[in-house]
Amino acid sequence: MVVTVLGLGGEALEKVLDLVQSECRNLGRKPVFVTDRDEFGPFRRRRLIVEQVPDAEALAVRFPDLPWTLYRERLFALIGRRWRPVASASFGRRPDARCLAALDER
User: Which of 13, 21, 38, 47 has the highest CB neighbour count under 10 A?
Assistant: First the structure.
C-alpha cells in the first residue's frame, strides 16, 4: 500500500504514521510512504519504508524552465513498479491524478 503524506510534517505527520501503521498491521499490509519533505526521523524511528519525491510546485517557482511535474510523475511510476501497490491513500496534499495513475503503470 502506498501512502502519500505530501506537505505533512511535525505532529500531523506523527499522527498519520501512527494511524496508518496501526491500520496496515490489522490488514496485514506493509505501507510505503511517499513524502516531499526531507524530514525522515519519524519514518526511521518506526522503521518504515519511505520514498521521496520533489515538491514540484515549489521547484517550478524557483526553476520554471524545468519539467518538475513530469519528473515527479515519472518518480511515482518508478515507485509503482518497485513496490507494486495494491492500494493507495493520501494524507496532506493529494498528488495530482497523473501521479496516482502512474502508480499503476507496469
Answer: 13
Rounded Cα distance between 64 and 62, Å, is: 6
Q: Any idea where the domains of the chain sit in the sequence?
A: 2-102
- CB 61: neighbour CB atoms within 10 A? 9
The dotted CATH code for 2-102 is 3.40.50.2000
Length of the chain: 106
pLDDT digits (tens, 9 = 90+) for 21-38: 999 999 999 999 999 999
Give the whole-angstrom CA distance, residue 19 versus residue 13: 10
Residue 3 is placed in which grid cell? Answer: 501512502
Span 77-92, pLDDT tens digits: 999 999 999 999 999 9
